[in-house]
Amino acid sequence: MAHPAPAVKKNDQVAVLAGRDRGKRGRVLRVLPTKGRVIVEGVNLIKRHTRANPQRNIKGGIVEREASIHASNVQLVCPECGAVSRTGRRQLDDGTRVRVCVKCKGVVDK
Q: Which of 79, 90, 93, 108 is the most exposed place for a label (fewest CB within 10 A)?
């Protein structure tokens, strides 16, 4: 089954709506569209035990890093009004299509 285009993109500021990190805000580091998931900075932190690898200059020990979270559990934070909002689409006068905030009608994409 094909997934729809993700509502959030890389480097978007998002708020977490559900889960143990509910209420946190962060920047999207990576979007995994085939799995319908996103990786958000500082959200859903997990601990991984890594073996040292001197050839790749990797230290061993316990590493804390972000795990993916389902895209339905995050929502875009509008850069103009600062509110958590859905996005719409609009075509500008020069013909470019942009995402817009549903609440304030401000342009999300630059």
A: 93
**How far is residue 55's CA from residue 6's CA, in Å, rounded to a whole number?**
37
Cα angle 2, 8, 12; round to 5: 155
* Residue 73: Cβ within 10 Å count: 19
pTM score, whole prediction: 0.80
How would you list the strands of the sheet with 69-70, edge to edge? 69-70, 37-40, 25-32, 13-16, 74-76
Domain ranges of the chain: 1-77, 78-110
Architecture of the domain delimited by 1-77: Roll (2.30)
Tokens of 33: 């569209």
Indicate the residue type of 62: I
Helix (H) or strand (E) holding 16: strand 13-16
Structural element, H or E, at residue 27: strand 25-32
